[in-house]
Design goal:
The chain is an alpha+beta fold and 112 residues long. The chain has one domain. It has three helices and two strands, in the order E-E-H-H-H. The chain has helices at residues 22-41, 48-74, 91-111, and strands at residues 2-8, 11-17. Strand 1 and strand 2 form a beta hairpin. Helix 1 (22-41) crosses helix 2.
Length: 112
């Protein structure tokens, strides 16, 4: 089992992976780090946990979209082209509201 230290959001994290998967793991960490950098560029200044959460939510959203496209292709249906990437000035506010809601749920679960 290989051990790789990746740097995400300015922090180093040791992560184990299968031998030969080091480069793949490093590439995935770089993608997460790129997402965190984009969030910071939008003015978001949160702790490491929240930034990782927001980056994970972005990746999960993209994964969901891709899974829907794959299902449509397997069913023989047409896949709609994704809308062009546009700057959404309200995106930071929406992500912040979503993160606060998730933190509220987590806090209520911890208190239960």
């Amino acid at each position: 089992m290989a051990q790789v230290t990746v740097r995400v959001g300015g922090y180093s994290h040791p992560v184990a992976c299968q031998d030969g998967q080091e480069k793949h793991l490093t590439n995935m960490a770089a993608e997460v780090d790129k997402r965190i950098g984009a969030l910071k560029a939008m003015g978001m200044q949160f702790g490491e946990t929240r930034m990782l959460l927001l980056a994970a939510l972005q990746l999960a959203d993209e994964t969901s979209d891709l899974q829907a496209e794959i299902a449509a292709l397997k069913a023989g249906g047409a896949v709609a082209a994704p809308p062009p990437a546009a700057s959404d000035p309200a995106l930071a506010d929406r992500l912040n509201a979503l993160a606060e809601a998730i933190e509220g749920i987590a806090a209520s679960l911890e208190g239960a």
